[in-house]
Amino acid sequence: MPEAHQQTFNVGADEAHSVLDLADEVAAALGVEPRVEHLPPRKEVVHAFASHDKARRVFGRTAPIPLREGLRRMARWVKARGPTPPVEFKDIEVPINLPPSWAKTADSGPGGDS
Predict the structure, then answer these.
(1) What is the rounded average pLDDT of the residues 67-81?
(2) Mean pLDDT over residues 8-14, rounded?
(3) SS3 label, residue 25
(4) Got the DSSP string for 30-96?
(5) Model's pTM, two decimal places?
């Protein structure tokens, strides 16, 4: 679809969900027990919303998929695909206040291997 070429589209739910609710739903979709580690809060956006106006203009209006159903579909795809190696964050421009898992790579220098 030419209108979508090199465009960025917001993806998100039409109703609010907490990160904890999302973790529980992802675990349920994958058939595992959730393992949640509560860390100190970060200085980030507390409530985020996704506007789907641009996606609807380009792709047309479709019925929303409830979170649980979307996660069920995602889990089916993940299980069919199998594990893939994680992507490391490289060349982080501003390493101040990064989450520890990101900072580990940022502190190791360019390419993450020093």
Answers:
(1) 94
(2) 82
(3) helix
(4) HTS-------PPPSS-SS-----HHHHHHH---PPPPHHHHHHHHHHHHHHH---PPPPP-S-S--T
(5) 0.63
d(CA 29, CA 50): 23
Burial 56-81, CB ≥16 within 10 A → b, else e:
eeeeeeeeeeebeeebbeebeeeeee
What residues contact 2, with CB distance under 8 A and at least 6 apart? none
Residue 105 confidence (pLDDT) above 60: no
Each domain of the chain, given as residue ranges in start order, spans: 2-83, 85-114
Contact indicator for 7, 59 with CB cutoff of 8 Å: no
- Identify whether the C-beta of residue 87 lies closer than 8 Å to the C-beta of residue 73: no
Return the structure tokens found at 95. Answer: 């390493």
Phi, psi of 88 (to 5 degrees): -85, 145
pLDDT > 80? residue 75: yes
